[in-house]
Amino acid sequence: VAQADADPNAPLVTAGGRVFWVRSQLTNPDGSQVTNPNGSVLSNPNPEVFGSDPATGQAEPIAPGTQVMASVNRTFIYVETNYKHLTEYWLDGSPKGRTLTVPDGWFLLNPDLNTDPTPVVANGIVVATWPVPKQNRTLGIWSPSTGRVRTLGKVWQVTATYTAPGARSSLVAWNPASCGTSESCTLKITNTANYSSRVVASPTGHFLWGGAFSPDGRLLAVFANAGDTHGDPTAQLAIVNTQSGSLKLVSGVSVYVGESVHWAQWLPDGRHLITGGLTPFGSTVPALDALVDSQTDQASPFRFVADRNQDLDISSVVVP
Questions:
Q1: Secondary structure (3-state) at 180
Q2: What order of strands is seen across the sheet that includes strand 18-25?
Q3: Does the chain have fewer CB atoms within 10 Å around its N or its C terminus?
Q4: What distance in Å separates the CA atoms of residue 249 and residue 244, rounded to the nearest whole number?
Q5: Checking phi first, is residue 245 left (phi over 0); if not, alpha (psi -120 to 50) or beta?
């Protein structure tokens, strides 16, 4: 569709039928990547947010920034710089007007490994007392209109958020700080209507990072640890009922992920989702991509990329 030169650690974002990303690598005039003599790609010291209409494939720069996120109603985007500042832009890239500054002692979440790039919720913007996973950091929701932060608890990593169209509250799925030091790792689903939390336990000991809420918020796709392959994690897809907290493992979908993070995307029907994995190092088995029926647990394998030597990264978006 387009040559993105996208930062693999900064998730893709979609809004209004457009796709946005952070360009983090230097390119030559012909669009090829600038490399060192040893062949490694040179990173751009001044990353920039780009946007594209998939119908045309035309990529256009919007503004310097290290992360892009959609507004809660997806009518505009925020561009982040230095974990502390958010500048608003319309979807066509024109400035909307405001630049917001996070309160002292709080930071925007680092986009690395955050595969559901929706930190903007009905009550404000999800922030933490340190941008990356760290013991004793606190999770909160910052209201730009009041400047106040409502704390949720000690956090290790945020998995996903969900806000229904026009809703005044949201769901936030996150792993508590104990996940950083314990073999067991629970998942909390906090409802910001009253800030009550439902705790979900992993049947395999702990959860990996990453996941996504279904379009109606009733289900949450997450990944449970399924052991190691060549020293790196393997993930098993699990579906959580957000109302009851019950969890079921999808037996047909276990994927090698390389890092302790994975991605899932729900299709608009709210029943099917897509997910995929990497080819294990040294393996001749091609990577598994799967279309999963959440009601029947049936998984149909397919390939996004015809070249078996290529895999998707940890981020994907569904463009309606």
A1: helix
A2: 13-15, 18-25, 43-52, 59-64
A3: C
A4: 15
A5: left
